[in-house]
């Protein structure tokens, strides 16, 4: 807390309500911070004897959090809370973790024709342990068929680009008319399986 002239106000018991657009606010690890009401995006804390209030923010989702605060400066409730201006908003960037799995983010065509490239080619992303896209270049991803005696044609083994994506361009199936799924694998990562592709006879 500070007064109108910028001087510190060492006064306990004022409620400061923190708000964020991303993540979860909770009590900070501070012995003086023993009060709090929590929801997903706001948290109320009492100032300690030094006039300071604390909050902790966590997020499993990668992105940019903007934290603001309002202070109840009048404990008689004759006026409403004031928005904290100095240092507001506080910007916190949550980065994704290292990749642990693959995720098909663009499915291949629902229907394909023998030896003809899919009209919609699959796209695969790297994701971290919380499902965030994890941008990392140079990771090898290989596509194959999960079942059946058919053959997957085209460039099947590609490296992720600088954003952590692999975009296939010329995959096709050679085999008998049936339903197939693509299997996407990469060493050390959890694989993913595409939606079904129905291989039909050329009309």
Question: End-to-end span in angstroms?
Answer: 76 Å
Number of strands: 20
Strand fraction equals 35-45%
- Report on the biggest sheet: 6 strands, antiparallel
- In the predicted model, the low-confidence regions spanning at least 5 consecutive residues are none
Question: What is the succession of H and E elements?
Answer: EEEEEEEEEEEEEEEEEEEE
The average pLDDT value, as a whole number, equals 88
Q: Categorize the overall geometry.
A: rod-shaped
Task: Find the structural class using helix and strand composition.
Answer: mainly beta
Radius of gyration, CA atoms, in whole angstroms? 27 Å
Number of helices: 0
Question: Share of helix among residues?
Answer: under 10%
> What is the subunit arrangement here?
single chain
């Amino acid at each position: 807390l500070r007064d109108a002239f910028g001087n510190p106000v060492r006064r306990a018991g004022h409620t400061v309500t923190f708000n964020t657009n991303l993540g979860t606010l909770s009590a900070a690890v501070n012995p003086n911070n023993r009060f709090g009401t929590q929801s997903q995006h706001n948290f109320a804390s009492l100032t300690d004897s030094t006039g300071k209030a604390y909050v902790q923010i966590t997020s499993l989702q990668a992105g940019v959090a903007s934290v603001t605060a309002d202070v109840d400066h009048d404990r008689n409730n004759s006026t409403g809370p004031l928005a904290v201006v100095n240092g507001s908003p506080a910007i916190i960037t949550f980065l994704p973790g290292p990749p642990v799995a693959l995720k098909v983010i663009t499915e291949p065509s629902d229907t394909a024709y023998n030896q003809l490239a899919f009209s919609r080619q699959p796209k695969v992303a790297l994701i971290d342990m919380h499902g965030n896209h994890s941008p990392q270049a140079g990771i090898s991803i290989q596509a194959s068929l999960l079942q059946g005696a058919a053959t997957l044609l085209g460039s099947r083994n590609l490296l992720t680009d600088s954003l952590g994506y692999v975009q296939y361009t010329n995959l096709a199936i050679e085999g008998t008319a049936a339903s197939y799924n693509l299997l996407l694998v990469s060493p050390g990562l959890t694989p993913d399986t595409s939606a079904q592709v129905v291989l039909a006879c050329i009309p």
